[in-house]
Amino acid sequence: MSFSTKHALRLALVTTAALSMAACASKPKPGPGVGPGPGPGYPSQPGPGPGMGNVVPGSIQDFVVNIGDRVYFDFDQYDIRSDAGPVLDAQSQWLMRYPSVQVRIEGNADERGTREYNLALGARRANSVREYLVSRGVSPARISTVSFGKERPIDPGTSEDAYQRNRNGHTAITGGAR
After folding, report:
1. How far apart are CA 26 and CA 131, in angstroms?
2. What SS3 state is found at 37?
3. 3-state DSSP call for residue 88?
4. What is the sign of the dihedral through the CA atoms of 42, 80, 172 and 136?
5. Half-sphere exposure in the Cβ direction for 110 (13 Å, CA)
6. What share of the chain in percent tops pLDDT 70?
7. Where does the record place the region Disordered (predicted)?
8. Is this model's pTM higher than 0.90 or not?
9. Closest Cα partner for 162 from 72, 59, 46, 61?
10. What is the largest CA-CA distance in the chain?
């Protein structure tokens, strides 16, 4: 058995990532807004809004408006929350109905923690969403994942509400929609 430089580098990267995650891992202090519900103002499954009656079935707009393209995570967690299950079930059913659609699951984190830690956490969140969709019958070949860590916040605020919105998995349609 040889131990190449490539293996040593890979081991060093994995160790660094694990140490970064361990250094940042802490239990959140209970407080207002930290809980199982979706972030304020961000329903887990949005309904049609005003003027949305002309949504083309199978379109990106159909997916976003009628299904919901984002699920949220608790602080420092990547497990699928109970309120995310119905959204992801609806996503999987929609994707099964439109088999030519390709998606990219984007894992996001709030601004706390190091860049490296948040990239790793975002990757785990994206993979959790991907595994959920695959377990519901969506072909893994149709799903790619990416982690944006804390680089693409949907709320630039620094409140707990903003942090909740930014801890999410976003399902972006990348092709095949009408």
Report:
1. 25
2. coil
3. helix
4. negative
5. 20
6. 70
7. 28-55, 149-178
8. no
9. 72
10. 65
